[in-house]
Amino acid sequence: MTDSFNHLSGAYVKVSTPAPYVALVELARNPVNAFHEPFWIELGQVFDKISQEPTVRAVVLASALPKLFSAGIDFTALTVHQGSDPARTAFLMRKHILGFQDCISAIERCPYPVIAATHGVAYGLSIDIISACDVRYAASNVVFAIKEVDVGLAADIGTLARLPKIAGNHSLVHELAYTGRNFSATEAEKMGLVSRVVEGSRDEVVAAALEVAKLIAAKSPVAVAGTKHLLLHARDHSVRENLEYTATWNSAMLQTQDLMDAVKAAQKKQQPKFRPLGSKL
């Protein structure tokens, strides 16, 4: 097993190994984790590298800064394409936006479950980022906001695509997207954006996220990765399509040794031990 995932770290994104098979990814750009292009490109690269690590089984995404998760976009570092031809300008802008979206979508396409742990301020791009995560925890002191409308933008990096499929209260999703107002951890839990509110701030919510990550990491990596894949497929397809796809998927995955290992461990009342996802028989 890899002793450390530190080699995956970059200038703004730190990766560590707080527990076996668990990667802790921390946003670390002082003073407020404001995202400029090198930051979001690096975030995407880190998650794409994690996707290739066979010893990872669960990921926690948090902030390394004690007071907040992220203030969102660093507007002072944004480049606005300008030109005399609106069509050509639009092509450049579209390419830029798609590239930005792809960096954040690296979180979603990571084959391992990603658990977001938010605290303090979590504005704008923070919502795009955590919406791409599989599980979302919030510290009781967190303040969320879909801020893009306040600066003349429709959120375009994932919030408007994913949040309506996450939250159970579409009326509230629309209200928050139109007004840009702040909302609390309690309101986020009520709408379904987060599944748990942890009393405290950064240390408490990260600890809670790591506990669930360790629980996931003890499961069959074949089963967990397959479950994430099928849940994402179900989100974007009909029930019938997903059932048929799942039958095809499991016709291969049910042949895993993990199934027999789990049964044998249960019979012996022992904790099963599974090989890394990329290991050979």
From TrEMBL:
Name of this chain's protein: ClpP/crotonase
Family: Belongs to the enoyl-CoA hydratase/isomerase family.
Keyword Lipid metabolism: yes
Coiled coil: none
GO molecular function: delta(3,5)-delta(2,4)-dienoyl-CoA isomerase activity
Keywords: Fatty acid metabolism, Isomerase, Lipid metabolism
GO biological process, one term: fatty acid metabolic process
GO cellular component terms attached to this protein's record: mitochondrion
Matching InterPro entries: ClpP/crotonase-like_dom_sf, Ech1-like, Enoyl-CoA_hydra/iso, Enoyl-CoA_hydra_C
Tree of life domain: Eukaryota
UniProt KW Acetylation keyword: no
The organism of origin for this protein: Trametes cubensis
Pathway involvement of the protein, from the record: Lipid metabolism; fatty acid beta-oxidation
